[in-house]
Amino acid sequence: MANTSTTQDVPEQPSRRQIRSIGPSGNYWYVVGIDKKLKPGQVEKVRFWKQNIALFRDEDGDLHAVEDRCAHRQLPLSAGFVKGKNIMCTYHGWEFDGCGKCVKISHELGKDRTKMPKIKIRDYPVKSQWGLIWLFPGDPELADSVSLPKIPQLEGEKPWPFIPIDVTINSHFTMIVENVCDFNHEYLHRHKQPFSKPTLRDWKREGDSIHVYYDTKFDQSPAAKLFVEGGGKDFNEIDIWYQYPYQGSDIGGKYIHWMFMLPEDERTTRCFFVFLFGPIHLPVINRNIPEFLRKPILWFTNKWYIIPLLGEDKWALELEQEGFDRYPESAQIELNPAVTHFQKLSLERWADYTNSIAEKGKRKKASKATEKQQ
Ligand code: FES
Ligand SMILES: [Fe+2]
Q1: Radius of gyration over every alpha carbon of the chain, rounded to an integer in angstroms
Q2: Cα-flanking dihedrals φ and ψ of residue 228, to 5°?
Q3: For ligand 1, is residue 96 a contact (CB within 6 Å)?
Q4: How far is the CA of 108 from the centre of ligand 2 (A)?
Q5: Average pLDDT over residues 72-101
Q6: Nearest CA to ligand 1 atom 4
Q7: What distance in Å separates the CA atoms of residue 139 and residue 141, rounded to the nearest whole number?
């Protein structure tokens, strides 16, 4: 095996307890929903690493995200209503705008005020791209300088169509990365056979990305037999990556997937999968299908094959989480060298993030102290 990492940069293996308790860095954009599922006037509760967030679309169609708590008595705003551009608490009806500012108190004690008291909850940068809703949970000052992943297939005049899959897996996000990037769990999928005979050929780390290359076969997959050129026989390798905090893969530049994880807590991760099929080919008639049939076929493939396949991973991952909870001190035995690199990358980004929060806290304290002295 010719890996492009040198032996001295293979990290020491972190302990299982250490890796399964870290959080995600908030200084990236995370998918928190599917655009068309959140209609104007609707609010939805989403979670990023133990923070509850009320995501809402105002009646003009603009997206907003604020802490999911009313500043008055901490009721969740996601239990409230959207009113015009604002979100209204269901208890005493206080209204907060999309920036989290309390802008209206219409009950007896608030309505004749000429000046509103200064009440504000946290708001989050949020935007829509490729039909997905993205939220920046970390330092809002960094949001504009951090880019979304580059997905050329979704750019340009003819973006590839896709139907996102939203699945919640009750396990730590690092387990999910290891599952999706590590083809050695072929046995789990022995009936559905999305790939077969995988051999780890190489891996490399470049900055925030780790690429893993497998030689493998796809011609046993029922989906490939039905919808892929040559029934999948012409594709023999896959490039699969962990591009922090995202995950993806590429088969021959024609069949691509991305997984956008939303870690909610140590045992819950919401995953948004995007499967991109370049040509959808019917080997029976040896033709690519026409454009108007692509979405129905993608819908069918998701329902019939991909969602049940992901169900097998979900099942195994949830059992793995239970196993970890029962035996947290058990030694970590890992045969795939790339897995240690995934873990190290997650650990590094978490350490950077927690350090940046601590630094910011110190700077704030220092500037408050200086203000007091003046
Ligand atoms: S608790 Fe929300 S308005 Fe009183
Ligand atoms: Fe799998």
Answers
A1: 23
A2: -115, 145
A3: no
A4: 58
A5: 97
A6: 92
A7: 5
CB 274 within 8 A of CB 148: no
How confident is the model over 221-245, as a mean pLDDT?
A: 89
Cis? peptide before 245, omega within 30° of 0: yes
- What does the H/E/C string look like for 343-364? HHHHHHHHHHHHHHHHHHHHHH
Q: How far is CA 28 from CA 86, 181, 239, 246, 266, in A?
A: 26, 20, 23, 10, 18
Does residue 232 register a pLDDT over 90? no
> How far apart are the C-alpha atoms of 273 and 310, rounded to whole Å?
10
Q: What is the pTM of this model?
A: 0.93
- The ligand minimizing its distance to the Cα of 311 is 2
| Cα–Cα distance, 44 to 35 (Å, whole number) | 12
Residue 150 is encoded by which pair of tokens?
């580059």
For residues 53 and 66, what is the distance between their CA atoms, to the nearest angstrom? 6
pLDDT of 141-191, one tens digit each?
Answer: 999 999 999 999 999 888 999 999 999 999 999 999 999 998 889 999 999
Examine the pLDDT at 133 and tell me if it is beyond 60: yes
Shortest-distance Cα residue to atom 1 of ligand 1: 73
User: Could you give the C-alpha distances from 70 to 55, 77, 101, 117, 317, in angstroms and in order?
Assistant: 14, 6, 11, 14, 35
Q: How confident is the model at residue 246 (pLDDT cuts 50, 70, 90)?
A: very high
CA–CA separation, 352 and 197 (whole Å): 38
Cα distance between residue 120 and residue 102, in whole Å: 6
> Which amino acid would we find at residue 67?
E
What are the Cα distances from residue 137, in Å, to 30, 40, 122?
Answer: 8, 22, 10
Closest residue by Cα to atom 3, ligand 1, is: 92
Least reliable range by pLDDT among 64-78, 95-109, 132-146 = 95-109
| AA identity, residue 104 | K
CB 230 within 8 A of CB 142: no
Contacts with 355 (C-beta within 8 Å, 6 or more apart), sequence order: none
Q: Are 46 and 30 in contact (CB under 8 A)?
A: no
